Fold this sequence. Notes:
By secondary structure, this protein is α/β, with parallel strands linked by helices. The protein has helices at 25-33, 51-65, 84-96, 111-123, 137-143, 181-198, 200-208, 210-214, 218-236, 253-262, 269-286, 292-304, 317-323, 360-369; strands at residues 17-21, 42-48, 69-75, 104-109, 130-134, 148-151, 160-163, 168-172, 336-338, 355-357.
Amino acid sequence: MSVFNVELKKVVDDSYEIEVGHELEQKLIDDIKAGLVGNIKKFAVVTDSNVKPLYADKIFGMLKDNGYKCDLIVFPAGETSKTRETKEFIEDTMLEKGYRRDCCIIAVGGGVVTDIAGFVAGTYGRGVPFINYATTLLAAADASVGGKTAVDTPLATNLIGLFNQPEKVYIDISTWRTLPQRQLSSGLAETIKHGCIADRKFFDYISENMDRIFAVDDEVCEHIAHENCKVKYQVVMKDELESGLREILNLGHTVGRAIETVSGYKLLHGEAVSIGLVAEVKLAEKLGYCTAEDVKLVAEILEKAKLPVAIPDYIDREALVKKLYTDKKVRDGKLRFVLQKGIGDIMEFDGGQYALPVSEDTAREIIMSI
Ligand SMILES: NC(=O)c1ccc[n+]([C@@H]2O[C@H](COP(=O)([O-])OP(=O)(O)OC[C@H]3O[C@@H](n4cnc5c(N)ncnc54)[C@H](O)[C@@H]3O)[C@@H](O)[C@H]2O)c1
């Protein structure tokens, strides 16, 4: 018998830039020319059917005009496309078109596009680089930054995926002008979540500037894009792989993700998170970490953002309680919740834990009450 000790200690530097600005297409091309992804000359531009004519066609055209080999890979817009089948479609298209390891994927779109393209990039040829060009507030606030990539399954959202960091993220605020109001509101849910977990001043700023956000005012939108990145990065830089602190970014998502799936994706991600934020601040109130005034303020800001704050009647609440168990924070079969400590702070529990086990009966009581 022989035993080999395979020593593979690694020092990895996955640092990257997030650039916030307006009409960043030319900046993307300039960065590629300046060596953002080394000598790579072949690019798969992945996008959805809505974003293609709005922004991806332009980026594709500019890459071609600059002498790069590229293909545009388009899938139908919407959460129901975030599947293993769409991943396979992108991979098969790339294989058919001769993509090998010397290529880069550019995701142009919202969170569905950046999540799926980042996942493809992580497994294609055992890993190729990718760049995110985010075109929704939700992608800017959350999905395109932080390196979580995934697809949904019929059981629940985001269960299959990997941590994979992009080479660079572009947050093009001018793209928010073409976003339907419902999508802008959806992105506001994650933005408000950041105020809830980390920054009372930011929470108040969002509330006071809601009209200017809906008007896509440059100054206000740049500020919220910047603050979103700041909150998210203060967490991700300390706990990239979600072994502790990063769980706080899950506020509102234990209930939110379950509602999103049980609604059959009738509710947008941010709309489901909005209801989840209300449920979870009520839970925090019940457990003594928030006041009735905090609950009122959270519901008010979400309503101001034109988001739902109650579980729609068509949702089977018992099915929702069962669906809570698909949450990735569940440990030893027990539900665990991240809990606000007032507004702008989060509870830390014994042993550096940020999620507290909560009984099914307590969770059910909250779900039945909203
Ligand atoms: N990876 C993460 O850390 C993370 C975090 C939060 C959310 N997510 C995921 O993000 C997804 C939701 O993101 P989303 O709301 O951006 O979804 P999305 O990508 O489906 O975009 C929403 C809709 O807006 C359209 N669209 C995109 N940009 C547009 C623009 N500029 N103008 C007009 N229409 C535009 C899209 O075609 C789509 O119909 C969910 O799948 C969620 O699970 C991931």
